[in-house]
Write a structure and sequence with these properties.
- By secondary structure, this protein is α+β, with helices and mostly antiparallel strands.
- The strands form 2 sheets. It has a 5-stranded antiparallel sheet.
- The protein is globular.
- About 15% of the residues are buried.
């Protein structure tokens, strides 16, 4: 990531996007990372969230925080995306970032945090972790 909070989106990840990856949604994610959603995936998540009743204060709080931290991003001519300072601060991103594909979305991690998370998961035991979640790999 450069001084203007821009990062290059690899071509392999852009191919996951229906329109070739020129526009997408970036939002705060769990575990101090950011989430990149394609527009169709974002529309599905937004529809699900909007179906929740605003009569519940937890739903209102979630919507307020979620929408406050969600931005549409468009790649520049060089294939870079720019993050605003709120997103960078949330994920505690430094110079090196890692983009990791998670099915229909991509997570943006500070590289050091990502490596620590992977190391911890490996130390827990990949097989044991999968078994505890009932995932057949």
């Amino acid at each position: 990531m450069d001084a203007k909070n821009r990062f290059l989106v690899p071509a392999a990840l852009k191919r996951q996007f229906p329109d070739g990856g020129s526009k997408f949604i970036v939002s705060c994610g769990r575990d101090k990372c950011l989430m990149i959603y394609t527009l169709p995936v974002w529309e599905r998540i937004e529809k699900e969230l909007m179906a929740k009743s605003d009569s519940d204060p937890k739903v209102r709080d979630l919507k307020a925080v979620f929408y406050d931290s969600t931005y549409e991003v468009e790649l520049d001519a060089a294939g870079r995306a720019m993050l605003n300072s709120d997103l960078v601060e949330h994920a505690e991103l430094k110079k090196d970032v890692t983009l990791a594909s998670y099915g229909d979305r991509i997570k943006i991690w500070d590289t050091e945090r990502y490596k620590a998370m992977i190391k911890k998961s490996k130390e827990t035991g990949f097989t044991e972790l999968a078994d505890s979640l009932g995932v057949e790999l």
